[in-house]
Amino acid sequence: MMKVFLMPFFVCFAFLSNAQDSIPNPQDAQGYQQLLFLLTKAASETENSLLKEHFETVMYFAQDTTHGFKPGAEDYKWASESLSYFDSIGLNWETYLNEPRPLMLSFISPSDGLRSYYWLVLPKNYDSTKKDYPLYFELHGSGGGSNNNPRKMIFQPLQPDLKGVATGGSRKEGFWVFPWGRGDKGYRDQAEKDVLEALADFDSRFKTDPTRQYLYGFSMGGMGTLKMYPMTKERWSAIASYSGALRDADLEKAKEYVSVPVWIAWGSEERWADGNRQIRDLFIEAGVKDFEWTEVEGVGHKYLGEYQEKMLDWLNEHEKK
Which pLDDT value is given to residue 21? Predict the structure, then answer.
């Protein structure tokens, strides 16, 4: 069981006093404390193990300093605003069954001993006795460093107005997993391990349909998808890269994808257009058997909802034999 330590208000305030922009306003500081107490009570009262861990995880990352980010004024604001969400619908299991609201789960990294996080959106009408839901494993893009602090990413969908959940989560067609990946670190080194460890943690909790396993991502996440696939190639039914931040592709690397269906799309006006055109040509030359690509004319680096739908529809057409 996760141990959550509530810090007295004066302690929270004291370690933030070194920088003016880290000092929360009194209203947000009060909301932060109220959130922690509300979730402590909710975690102690619920018999639902997923809800309990969700509440405990929110409390943990609200206070987590192990990744080098002490809670700042903006974090207190996010936490305070999420109090309204938990006060209204966020304590109810039905919210996570019926809406594309993510549960926050965490695990201790086997590789560096730090706690890490991921979002989990449940399938529509989730039934815990079913073991054949598909898995949609999405890698996020770069926020220019803003995702390095886990609170920046994780508090976003816990607001009264839902924000940040991509189409893969909002469709609720299966389990949708969205790992933190240690933020905006290009899925390299510990960030790469983090993604693999998040996948392993999910597998330790849930059984899914082995013929419907989908890996995809946008921007940095598209690059991460193509990077991760060769390490886990036996798993995936199909993969997709949307506006992937691609560079340094070559024919030998492209040949690693010949046995998996691949979908890629990008905007004609974005900075990664040439890299995507190059990987398109290499996939064709390498003989990728089931390959679909789209260059969206007149569009820059944008995660368009229309093409997210197209991507997911295409992924759903593929089952692993």
Answer: 57
pLDDT per residue as tens digits for the range 1-30:
444 434 333 233 333 334 445 789 999 999
Listed in sequence order, the DSSP H helices in the chain are 9-15, 26-45, 49-63, 73-85, 93-98, 150-154, 167-170, 190-205, 220-228, 251-254, 273-286, 305-316
Q: Which tokens in the block code for residue 305?
A: 């909802």
Distance in angstroms (rounded) separating the CA atoms of residues 293 and 296? 10
d(CA 63, CA 61): 5
- Measured between alpha carbons, how far is residue 236 from residues 116, 119, 239, 289, 312 in Å? 23, 20, 7, 15, 14
Cβ–Cβ contacts within 10 Å for residue 97, how many?
15
**Closest listed residue to residue 39, CA positions, set 12, 70, 65, 62:** 62
What's the pTM value of the predicted model, to 2 decimals?
0.92
SS3 240: strand
In terms of Cα–Cα distance, which of 27, 57, 26, 24 is closest to 39?
57
Instruction: Point out the least confidently predicted range of 75-84, 132-141, 192-201.
Output: 75-84
Q: How far apart are CA 39 and CA 29, in angstroms?
A: 16
Higher pLDDT, residue 197 or 12? 197
d(CA 255, CA 23): 53
Token code pair at residue 121: 């959106």
Rg (CA), the chain: 20
CB 164 within 8 A of CB 156: yes
Tokens representing 4?
A: 């959550």
**Which has more confidence, 150 or 242?**
242
